[in-house]
Write a structure and sequence with these properties.
This protein has 11 helices and 12 strands. It starts with a strand and ends with a helix. The protein folds into 2 domains: about 5-120, Succinyl-CoA synthetase domains (Rossmann fold, 3-Layer(aba) Sandwich), CATH 3.40.50.261; about 135-225, Arc Repressor Mutant, subunit A, CATH 1.10.10.10. The strands form 3 sheets. Strands 2-1-3-4-5 form a 5-stranded parallel beta sheet, with helices on both faces. A 4-stranded antiparallel beta sheet has the order 6-7-8-9. The protein has a 3-stranded antiparallel beta sheet with strand order 10-12-11. With about 230 residues, the chain is α/β, with parallel strands linked by helices.
């Protein structure tokens, strides 16, 4: 299954960065609205929605905005309730939704409403140069498939599903298939293997005597530095 893409048409710097972080946390690709339009905004099955703000609306011609709203779900991200009220009538008549306040949980809710549940579950998640596809249990690093043991793959998914939370060895062990469970001590060996194989090594942190954690900040920073 291919990765899913959000067109980020938010021009306000703080909200733009927030959208990038939210999408990253969900393993989604982002593309700028400007680049998307330069490429004629062709229909792309990987695109799931378009985010816009007040600045984007000023730059978009009315006809172009209507075409976008017909092709994709368009979500307006205002920086205040006042901004939303000023353009509400125009946007609602075009079938546009709003995301205010722009918070992570609400962002995820809107995305899931735009995507078939099966497609969402089987999508390829993108974290910098690392691609993870739960559907066929595959990891790619720099476009090359990494041969990872089933138990290692399962543990990696558990860690990514619990970003910013410390996951205990017991928690990990309890969520592995029965046939793959072993002593908690072996969890350390598996995590060591994941670090070496997945390309996410320094983003996986050991919490002494407790377990492991991948923080969103560490993962985001790691992938940005890696891309640079």
């Amino acid at each position: 299954m291919s990765a899913l893409t959000i067109i980020n048409g938010i021009y306000k710097e703080e909200l733009h960065e927030q959208a990038e972080r939210y999408a990253f946390r969900e393993g989604l690709r982002t593309r700028s609205l400007e680049l998307f339009l330069q490429e004629n905004g062709s229909r792309d099955d990987s695109v799931i929605l378009v985010l816009t703000d007040g600045e984007a609306l000023k730059k978009l011609k009315k006809d172009l905005f209507l075409v976008l709203s017909l092709r994709f779900p368009v979500i307006f991200v205002p920086d205040s309730a006042l901004e939303w009220s000023m353009v509400r009538q125009r946007l609602e008549s075009a079938g546009c939704r709003t995301l205010y306040p722009f918070q992570y949980d609400y962002f995820c809710e809107v995305i899931r409403e735009c995507v078939d549940p099966k497609i969402w579950r089987e999508r390829t998640c993108i974290f910098g140069r690392v691609e993870i596809c739960p559907a066929n249990r595959m990891v790619r690093l720099n476009g090359t498939e990494v041969r990872m043991r089933q138990v290692d793959f399962d543990i990696l998914l558990i860690l990514l599903e619990n970003l910013d939370r410390v996951v205990t060895r017991q928690y990990i062990n309890d969520r592995l298939p029965q046939r793959l469970r072993s002593s908690q001590r072996n969890i350390d060996t598996h995590v060591s293997s994941i670090r070496q194989q997945s390309g996410l090594g320094s983003a996986i942190r050991c919490v002494r005597s407790v377990g492991y954690c991948i923080s969103e900040e560490a993962l985001y920073s790691f992938c940005l530095s890696d891309a640079g």
